Amino acid sequence: MSKIDRFEDLVAWKIARELTKEVYRASKRDLFIRDYGLRDQICRAAVSIMSNIAEGFERVGNKEFVNFLSIAKGSSGEVRSQLYVAPDQNYISASEFNLIFAKATENSRVISGLINYLKQSEMRGKKFS
């Protein structure tokens, strides 16, 4: 794996950004926008994925990074769970649900891969050298 110097270059962060954009877009619809609780929670969970990937990357050790990635992965599951409410309440279409759900699932998979890579990596970061 080549060296990555910025969290913005991580595939997991890029996918999380796309997911967040889709969640915000969908949540601006007429009925969805009126459900303040769900809208706030799903948007916060989506932003949490991006934020935890970035924060973990900016830490100086793999153990901390893995911890933050684990939190990000949990937030991805939270987005997927909350997303089920949206079509159930006719806030979004089945095709929109499938698009966002697939993006969240892909994000979880990529985060898991990054976690596994970091756990097996010989490079441990500045704190653990």
Overview of the structural elements:
Helices cover 75% and strands 0% of the residues. By secondary structure, the chain is mainly alpha-helical. It has a single domain, classed as 23S rRNA-intervening sequence (de novo design (two linked rop proteins), Up-down Bundle), CATH 1.20.1440. Helix 1 (11-26) runs antiparallel to helix 3 (36-58) and helix 3 (36-58) packs antiparallel against helix 4. The model has no long low-confidence stretch (mean pLDDT 93).
Draw up the topology in text.
Elements: H1 11-26, H2 30-34, H3 36-58, H4 62-83, H5 85-88, H6 94-120
Helix pairs in contact: 1-3, 1-6, 3-4, 4-6
The CATH topology is what?
de novo design (two linked rop proteins)
CATH architecture descriptor name? Up-down Bundle
Instruction: Extract low-pLDDT stretches.
Output: none
Q: What radius of gyration results from the CA coordinates?
A: 16 Å
Apparent shape: elongated
* Count of domain modules: 1
Beta-strand residue percentage: under 5%
User: Would you state the CATH class?
Assistant: Mainly Alpha
Strand tally:
0
Which structural class fits the helix and strand makeup?
mainly alpha
How many helix segments?
6
